[in-house]
Amino acid sequence: MERFEVSFKNKAVRVWFYTVLPATLLAIALMLILPYEKNRYTSLGLTLVNILYFIWFVIYIRKKLG
């Protein structure tokens, strides 16, 4: 199995820092600001961002190995 390099030279790490990290910080801020009834929309948005990143990552790895 190939080692996973955790640095900004790795494209997967850069994309994670550009997409998932800001989405997580925004979700935390919105959960603090919005009323409790609206938190499910924030959680849904964060879940979608994570799913889209994972799909991109799988496609990226297949293309890289392929």
Blueprint (SSEs and pairs):
Blueprint: H1 11-33, H2 39-65
Helix pairs in contact: 1-2
Keywords: Membrane, Transmembrane, Transmembrane helix
Transmembrane segments: 12-35, 41-61
How would you describe this structure to a colleague?
The chain crosses the membrane at residues 12-35, 41-61. Keywords: Membrane, Transmembrane, Transmembrane helix. The protein is mostly helical and 66 residues long. It has two helices and no strands. The protein has helices spanning 11-33, 39-65. α1 (11-33) packs antiparallel against α2 (39-65).
Strand content: under 5%
Largest sheet: none
Percent helix among the residues?
over 70%
> Could you list the spans in which at least 5 consecutive residues all have pLDDT below 50?
none
Assembly status = single chain
Secondary-structure element order, as H and E? HH
In round numbers, the mean pLDDT is 92
Question: Gyration radius, to the nearest Å?
Answer: 15 Å
Structural class: mainly alpha
Number of domains in the coordinates?
1
How far apart the termini lie comes to: 15 Å
Query: What is the number of E strands?
Result: 0
Total number of helices: 2
Categorize the overall geometry.
Answer: elongated
Spell out the key features of this protein:
single chain; 66 residues; mainly alpha; elongated; membrane; transmembrane; transmembrane helix
